[in-house]
Amino acid sequence: MIFTPAELPLKVKQWGKPLKAMLLKLKAKPPKNLDDIFQKYHDETFRKIDCLDCGNCCKTTSPEFFEKDIERLSKVLKMKPGQFIEKYLFLDTDGIYALRSVPCPFLSSDNYCNVYDDRPKACREFPHTNQRKMHTQLHLGAKNAEICPAVFDILSKLEESILATLPKKKEF
Ligand code: SF4
Ligand code: SF4
Question: Is the pLDDT of residue 65 over 90?
C-alpha cells in the first residue's frame, strides 16, 4: 500500500524499533545481493508512483548543493556563484550548502523542476534506493521514509522479504 506524504511520519513512528533494527542489521551484515534486492523493489515501487503526483521531497527538504552544482546552476541562471549562494543558499552547521527555504524555489506548481537538466546531484540520486553499495546508504532510510512514499514502500517490501527468510516457529 502506498501512503500519502501526510501519513508517513506517523507510520514511521509506529514502525519504530523494528525498522531501525532492520536497517542496523542490514548495515552490519549486508547480504551479497543487497543492491539487486533494492533495485528490484525500487523498480516495482516506481511503476506505481509518479513523482509528479507527489513532489514532497522538493516541497519539504533541501538537497545538498556541492560546488559543482552551484557552478552549473549559477551558469545556467546567468549569475555569479556568489550571487547564487546569496540568493538561494545558506551554510548549515555541518558546513553543507542547503536551500534557504522550502519548497525549493525551482519547483513549479505542477511539480516539475524548472532546472531539471541541471538539478543538483543529490536531487538526481534521491531517494537513494537504487544505488551501488546500498549498505552505505541505509542510514538515510528511516529519515527519508518519513517524507517519501516510495522509500516507505521499498523498506516495507524489504522487511517482508527478510521476514520470509526467517525460520518459522514450531507449532505444537
Ligand atoms: S522521490 Fe519520493 S518524495 Fe520525491 S517526489 Fe518521488 S515519491 Fe515523492
Ligand atoms: S532543484 Fe529541482 S529536483 Fe531539486 S529540490 Fe529543487 S525542484 Fe526538486
Answer: yes
Instruction: Check: CB of residue 105 under 8 Å from CB of residue 99.
Output: yes
- How far apart are alpha carbons 95 and 75 in whole angstroms? 23
Nearest Cα residue to atom 4 of ligand 1: 57
Residue 5, C-alpha cell as written in the block: 506524504
Give mean pLDDT, residues 112-140: 94
Can you give the pTM of this predicted structure? 0.91
Q: Where on the phi/psi map is residue 10: left (φ > 0), alpha (ψ -120 to 50), or beta?
A: alpha
> Distance from the CA of 51 to the center of ligand 1, in angstroms?
5
Q: Which ligand is nearest to the CA of 2?
A: 1
d(CA 19, CA 85) in angstroms, rounded, equals: 37
Q: How far is CA 124 from the centre of its chain?
A: 10
Phi, psi of 91, deg, nearest 5? -95, 115
